[in-house]
Amino acid sequence: MKKLILILTLLVSTVMFSSPSYAEWTKVGGDSEPDPDYKETHYINFAQMIRYGDYSFYLELSDWKSPIRDGIVSITNYVQVNCKSFSFRDLSALSFTNSMGQGEGTPFVSPYTNWTSVNKYKFGKKVIQLVCNR
Predict the structure, then answer these.
(1) What's the CATH fold of domain 2-132?
(2) What stretches of the chain show up as alpha helix (H) in DSSP?
(3) Cα 114 vs. chain centroid, distance in angstroms?
(4) Helix %, strand %, coil % of the chain (to 5)
(5) How is residue 133 annotated by DSSP?
(6) What ranges do the domains of the chain cover?
(7) 0.85 cut: is pTM over it?
(8) pLDDT tens digits, residue range 86-105?
């Protein structure tokens, strides 16, 4: 357990203090996924993804064509996935007023800080399958 806490601490601090604009982003969905009204595009940084037992940890970027609220155009989330139960939770999140996570990030309170099942989210299920099958 101590090893897991140490790994999580190192990962979260590395992700939080590195610039998302320099990450290797891979598009995993967009425009009409999951909701065409949002016109958002989702990316994952597979290069920095880590697998620890049944858990995967990855950095996700959501990018909108126009601000969604308070001038937010993009959000990065550091996500923990339970590949066995197909659930996820956001460990940390930053919002940006520029596209693709560029500029200074502001801490953002994600609505997904508790474990959430992806069974009701078609797009979330697709992302977890991509992450857990790597």
Answers:
(1) Lipocalin (2.40.128)
(2) 2-17, 122-132
(3) 14
(4) 25, 40, 35
(5) T
(6) 2-132
(7) no
(8) 999 999 999 999 999 999 99
